[in-house]
Amino acid sequence: xxxxxxxxxxxxxxxxxxxxxxxxxxxxxxxxxxxxxxxxxxxxxxxxxxxxxxxxxxxxxxxxxxxxxxxxxxxxxxxxxxxxxxxxxxxxxxxxxxxxxxxxxxxxxxxxxxxxxxxxxxxxxxxxxxxxxxxxxxxxxxxxxxxxxxxxxxxxxxxxxxxxxxxxxxxxxxxxxxxxxxxxxxxxxxxxxxxxxxxxxxxxxxxxxxxxxxxxxxxxxxxxxxxxxxxxxxxxxxxxxxxxxxxxxxxxxxxxxxxxxxxxxxxxxxxxxxxxxxxxxxxxxxxxxxxxxxxxxxxxxxxxxxxxxxxxxxxxxxxxxxxxxxxxxxxxxxxxxxxxxxxxxxxxxxxxxxxxxxxxxx
Length: 362
Ligand code: NAD
Ligand code: TYD
Hints:
The chain has about 350 residues and is an alpha/beta fold. It has a domain at about 10-200 and about 235-265 and about 295-315: Rossmann fold, CATH 3.40.50.720. Helices cover about 45% and strands about 15% of the residues. The protein is built from 14 helices and 14 strands. The protein has helices spanning about 20-30, 55, 60-65, 75-85, 100-105, 105-130, 170-185, 210-220, 240-250, 270-280, 305-310, 315-330, 330-340, 340-355, and strands spanning about 10-15, 35-40, 65-70, 90, 140-145, 190-195, 200, 225, 230-235, 235, 255-260, 265, 285-290, 360. The longest helix is centred in the N-terminal third of the chain and has 26 residues, at about 105-130. It is globular. Thymidine-5'-diphosphate (TYD) binds near residues 225 and 231. Nicotinamide-adenine-dinucleotide binds next to helix 1, strand 2, helix 6 and strand 5.
């Protein structure tokens, strides 16, 4: 994860560690066997799944360095004692799906803004204890997103570009990271921010484009492509995203923000074409459906600041996509249990009318 032999931060609080990227971070840190211990605080929303940590929990040496607590980052009573005993907080916890933020923004404000505030307040109290010589001040890493830049029609966003979030999700994420930065400026908290691009890989909740289309295609279900399908995203493999966060945690400068790009820009149509080819399924599954309101056309970031910090992504896109397709083929129990219960109501609400009014994609 980080290149240093002796990690700077040995006791970590990882919030949202049962989600897609957070669980990858936890698995990868523990698998390094470098003595670091992790407390996961996770609310286990529809997107959280303790099974995502099963590989670490099945290994006695790793399990001994992992503690799992079910709780809400917006609950000060749950958060304060945990922050009191760690060297760093890495905040992955968020409501993370743009489409759900359009259906119901409130949960996004609660977790992605107020939750960050509660974590920051707990860090501030610990910084005050540090000022009295009672401990070292904790570092706070806020996991943010390229979506805070808004739609980037051309060129690549740099860290000091204007933020122009356009969905309730990205607006809430922008608020969360700006609040974190304000605690660096105002209170001198040790804060770093990462802005990752669209992430893909194993354990990705099937509401998102790549896992939704893989799992629907395996079942010969329709693939609802929004609008003209020519929106562009930059894809980052999950282990590279988690690794880059670990690298910034260890080496990033306080008060700084780092873009974590994948450098794999594709249109959604190109992604679907690649997935169908790998799965041996026909293009006739694809349906053009009513577009997402306010749909960002393109995200792209310059990540030379991260490169200068010494991080390089490892996974080539073709290999990452192949590994992802294989994982969903081989782990059908994992996603079939998610695609039941709450999922069915969500899927109907999000897609039933769209698919009824859909047209063939040429
Ligand atoms: P995810 O939805 O898979 O996981 C989020 C986790 O947070 C879940 O385990 C959930 O139970 C937990 N959680 C939600 N609300 C909580 C609360 N109030 N208290 C405690 N836990 C709570 O998300 P992800 O895709 O793993 O994203 C992780 C982080 O990375 C998020 O902050 C997201 O904004 C950011 N990010 C994601 C991507 C992406 O493409 N997935 C890209 C850039 C940045
Ligand atoms: P998504 O995985 O939701 O990530 P984000 O909105 O954070 O970029 O969507 C990726 C792209 O795929 C985005 O342009 C929206 C599009 N998309 C579809 O066309 N159909 C779908 O069913 C979904 C979920 C996404």
